[in-house]
Amino acid sequence: MSFNAVQIGKYTIEKPIIQGGMGVGVSWDRLAGNVSKEGGLGVISAVGTGYYEDKVHAKRLVAQRPLEVENFYSKEGFTAIINNARKICGDKPLAANILYAINDYGRVVKDACEAGIDIIITGAGLPTNMPEFTEDYPDVALVPIVSSAKALAIICKRWQKRYNRLPDAVVLEGPKSGGHQGFTYEQCAMEEFQLENLVAPVVEEAKNWGNIPVFAAGGIWDKKDIEAMMALGAVGVQMGTRFIGTHECDAHDNFKDVLLNAKEEDIQLMASPVGYPARGVKTNLTALVEKREGPAIKCISNCVAPCHRGVEAKEVGFCIADRLSDAYNGDKEFGLFFSGTNGYRLDKLISVKELMDKLTIGE
């Protein structure tokens, strides 16, 4: 099967592969810029931009961590990442992933638009008011992440009624992805919620709203997987974990080592302060958390609304902002390392160009 270019709003993506947004600092300028340069859609994570360039863009720090929302989600840091990615990919389409569950969601969306981002992708909740923040930027394409046809229908109804617009594409994420899941623990293991059984109903729902392009995500690994999703009606895929295994990935070398050394049984679901199950690698941190001996929880950055200023963090035993940023800094003792179910299959680092060739031409 040969892959054709796909359209997302006004933007043409040469190869039907969206690189998943991964934070803190796993997909920033180097990874996203190179994926877009090679014809896919590079995606910059908006999470923790105050950590970029050794926290120079965070105006206030406490205990070497960005203080409060405006510094954790630094506008200056985000803009610098987007500008540096542009130096790599030129005028090719470039996207940002902005979680709906974050504090200051609307402001961060506007920051992305002002910095010249082309496409915004949003998951971690139903972004029913997403178009509200991009009204002054009609060319910015909007792509919600959903886990069901019902979720897509709700978004389309609300957007059409309130804003007279519809999603330019949609990402359907199944329960094998890294990071936060749009499913309960039980649903993650149930047959009817597996990605291959969700694609057809979501594609059908998308047809009701004018053939919105559907990208399948969660556990996609190789060209065969991409072809299987497209045979079910998806126009392409979103992939995160496999891009961690590239030289250009912005993650710390220790982060890459954790995945390169992970076994299949090391990648597990865990509780998260965001309120959704999350998938990552079992490490020293997860062992400490299980024994309630994890690092102190102080809520310096106030990152996500569902955590209620550290209440949920204390419930599950770790602060997600601090532990993801520790992973970004290469701290194997206290870092939280997200991975999709296939992360253990990473066995060496290759270039983004080589990976894109493998995915589109074959292994």
Mean pLDDT: 94
What count of structural domains? 2
Task: Give the CATH class of the largest domain.
Answer: Alpha Beta
Query: How many β-strand stretches?
Result: 15
- Gross morphology is globular
Q: Tell me the span between the first and last alpha carbons.
A: 14 Å
Which strand order does the major sheet show?
3-13-12-10-9-8-7-4
| Order of helix and strand elements from N to C terminus | EEEHEHEEHHEHEEHEEHHEHEHHEEHHHH
List low-pLDDT spans: none
Give the structural class. alpha/beta
Counted by DSSP, the helix tally is 15
CATH homologous superfamily caption of the largest domain? Aldolase class I
CATH architecture of the largest domain: Alpha-Beta Barrel
Radius of gyration: 19 Å
The CATH topology of the largest domain is given as TIM Barrel
- Major sheet details: 8 strands, parallel
Helix content: 25-40%
The fraction of residues assigned to DSSP E strands is 5-15%
